[in-house]
């Protein structure tokens, strides 16, 4: 099935504000709060600090993305300058979070990419906002044509 541009609106808006404590993994913590608040679709934005960072970037062949590259780790504390993502379900119907962000190290070096679950423990705190979209079904699934998992939205 060919992908097409698509969008859906929601009339009812629910916004969650929260924070994660030291030691809580960024993705696992936000997903736990989503489950607690009964959120299965939405958008996340957050800032804060991380003890270390684990992420990936896409790799290319002939200037075309072919998948994700090797895991990248920053093994020292960073400031999470900007992080945003989508709450969705994976192919198995499990709650998922597709999260990208930018971090800066103590010397000012900026890095970023696609964050990996279980590799991003909070240092001091993470403050987050979730814009709920429970009226919208967000499903993250592998697209063979694009060779990536993508999120499809339906009402």
Automatic annotation (TrEMBL):
A GO MF term: DNA binding
InterPro entries: PPC_dom (IPR005175)
SUPFAM superfamilies in alphabetical order: AF0104/ALDC/Ptd012-like
Top-level division of the source organism's lineage: Bacteria
One Pfam family matching this protein: PCC
Keywords: DNA-binding
Start and end residues of each PPC domain: 10-154
UniProt-listed PANTHER family: DNA-BINDING PROTEIN (PTHR34988:SF1), PROTEIN, PUTATIVE-RELATED (PTHR34988)
Protein name according to UniProt: PPC domain-containing DNA-binding protein
Taxonomic source organism: Halalkalibacter alkalisediminis
């Amino acid at each position: 099935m060919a992908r097409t541009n698509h969008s859906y609106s929601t009339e009812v808006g629910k916004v969650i504000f929260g924070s994660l404590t030291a030691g809580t993994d960024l993705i696992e913590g936000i997903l736990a709060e989503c489950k607690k608040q009964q959120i299965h679709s939405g958008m996340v934005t957050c800032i804060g600090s991380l003890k270390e960072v684990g992420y990936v970037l896409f790799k290319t062949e002939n200037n075309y993305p072919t998948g994700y590259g090797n895991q990248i780790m920053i093994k020292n504390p960073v400031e999470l300058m900007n992080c945003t993502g989508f709450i969705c379900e994976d192919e198995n119907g499990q709650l998922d979070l597709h999260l990208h962000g930018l971090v800066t190290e103590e010397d000012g070096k900026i890095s970023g990419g696609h964050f990996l679950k279980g590799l991003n423990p909070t240092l001091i705190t993470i403050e987050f906002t979730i814009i709920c979209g429970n009226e919208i079904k967000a499903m993250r699934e592998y697209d063979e044509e694009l060779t990536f998992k993508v999120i499809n939205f339906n009402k």
